[in-house]
Amino acid sequence: MNLVYVNNKAYSIRKDPQYYGIEQQWLNHLDLKNLGIISIDDIEGLDTLTDLESLDLRDNLITKISGLDHLQNLSRLQIGNKIEKIEGLEHLNALKFLTIHGNLTKIENLEHLQNLLILDLSHNQISEISNLISLKGLTYLSLSSNNISNIRGLDDIRLLGRLNLSFNKIKKIEGLESLSSLFWLKLSNNRITQIQGLDSLKKLSTLNLDNNKITEINGLDSLSELRILSLYRNRITRISGLNNLSKLEKLNLSENLITDLSDFEFPSNYLYDLRVHGNPLPKKQLREFRKYEFHH
Fold first, then answer.
1. Does domain 1-147 have CATH number 2.40.50.140?
2. Is-contact 49 31, C-beta < 8 A?
3. Which of 94, 140, 179, 195 might form a disulfide with 118, Cβ 3.0–4.6 angstroms?
């Protein structure tokens, strides 16, 4: 039977949808979240589930990844515990989706996971982006909520479409030159003072730079495909640098230091959601521009 036991209680496999891009797959999934598990080896019967394709071990007390070698068909693994080292994944060659939230300080031991498409190492203590050279097919990478101060180590993952580096210590946008497939970039909640280093990202359609220290809108002239731009809560004093964004649909400039919109011209005929609340604007202008806010 497709059962495992944790603290003498049975848990069974069920079918669960997984999306890889627009493709949907139904996986044999086992949900063991938040059960107080201390060691994977304590999950009775896990070694018999050779057809298991998805395993969720988030919100437990696991400190080490072990006991997974027999899960040859596992394509999705989620672990959010107290993991301090990436290990024990050497035989999981079918893995496409990997999430590890914990106490990691280093990216390592991923070279065998050459089928990996989605890697989420957010909410760790990682300070450097490294050891991703073997992950040629990676399309999504999240290193949000870590201790990263420099963007580098991404040159070899040229198929990357989405990158999340929010909630780090980044001061400068750099190291993205080779990511020509990137269409979604999140750099919110960092220490960025200038928009730069984006010229090669011709496919970029979404850019989030919320909660930084940006004072001027520039460096966007090459981003002709940009549709969503968010600069919420920065230090911008005037609107400029948007003239080439002819496909822009959403623009968030809320909570900045903009004092006048009398000269503002819509950069795009497609712009339907413009947010400027929280700026020291005249009340008349605030009322006038509020009608351009799209409320879902």
1. no
2. no
3. 140
